[in-house]
Amino acid sequence: QVQLVEYGGGLVQPGGSLRLSCAASGIIFSINTMGWYRQAPGKQRELVAAITPGGTTNYADSVKGRFTISRDNAKNMVYLQMNSLKPEDTAVYYCNSHSTWIGDYWGQGTQVTVSS
Q1: Residues near 91 by Cβ (< 8 Å), separated by ≥ 6?
Q2: Total Cβ atoms within 10 A of residue 41
Q3: Fewest beta carbons within 10 Å, which of 9, 67, 80, 84?
Q4: Is the pLDDT of residue 73 over 90?
Q5: Geometric angle at alpha carbon 10, from 65 and 7, rounded to 5°
């Protein structure tokens, strides 16, 4: 019954912005660390941003100052605000939920393409 659904991806010009959303169900959302990962063609999946239940955040160096992760525990939602997008941000972005005892769950991914 665990399900993570991402949406909000699309095509945007360099310098533009997108907001990704992830809706979680089937988990105790408020006690799970949530994260966003991405995978570009020919590259390994990498951590973009993560946020703990207490609100502590962690970002990849490549997105610091441009991306912001946030969560709404009342709505079981996690977001990724992406500003000043660059072509190298082009990738499939995946929502992740981590539980110490149960492990990881993944969304289906949403495509972000940054191109003029």
Answers
A1: 38, 39, 40, 43, 112
A2: 7
A3: 84
A4: yes
A5: 85
Contact 99, 30 (CB under 8 A): no
Whole-angstrom CA distances from 61 to 47, 57, 58, 72, 110 are 10, 13, 9, 24, 22
CA–CA separation, 74 and 24 (whole Å): 11
Question: Which residue do the tokens 């310098």 mark?
Answer: 15
Statement: residue 101 has pLDDT above 90: no
For the chain, what's the residue count? 116
| Mean pLDDT in residue range 34-52 | 97
Q: What is the pLDDT of residue 26?
A: 85
Which spans in 1-116 are helix H?
none
Which residue in this structure is represented by tokens 């665990």?
A: 2
- The residue type found at 21 is S
Pairing of strands 10-12, 67-72: unpaired
